[in-house]
Amino acid sequence: QVQLQESGGGSVQSGGSLKLSCAASGDTRCMGWFRQAPGREREGVASINADGRTWYADSVKGRFTISQDNAKNTVYLQMNSLKPEDTAMYYCAADPIECDYDGRDAEEYGYWGPGTQVTVSS
User: Which residue from 8, 6, 41 is spatially nearest to 112, judged by alpha carbons?
Assistant: First the structure.
């Protein structure tokens, strides 16, 4: 059983930064961040495999960075140059099996956190 808890969400102005954290209990080999804005489908944002392999959605490349601290079993999402369109509920996801491809597919993940809200104002 894996439990996930996100933190670090909040409200910032356009161009600002936030760092999300996801603390995991249990074995996690594939971890990802997803987001869902009101009226929109959930979308993958970034993922990281146990071997350090990462994937980013085109919309966040160059602005967001995913990283992990294996000692703390925590994954981070550093978000810079935030835009109003980044406003969404952000969810951490994890699975004890390594990412099958790039980790963008929500179906790969068996465990999800409750989410943390990110709001970017213009």
Answer: 6
Is residue 95 within 8 Å of residue 29, measured between CB atoms? Answer: yes
Contact 24, 6 (CB under 8 A): no
- Segment holding 4, helix H or strand E: strand 3-7
The DSSP element (H or E) to which 94 belongs, if any, is strand 88-95
Task: State which amino acid sits at residue 4.
Answer: L
Q: Which residue, 20, 6, 31, is CA-closest to 76?
A: 20
Q: Which stretch of 28-37, 93-102, 113-122 has the lowest confidence by average pLDDT?
A: 93-102
> What digits encode the pLDDT tens for the residues 13-69?
999 999 999 999 989 999 999 999 999 999 999 999 999 999 999 999 999 999 999
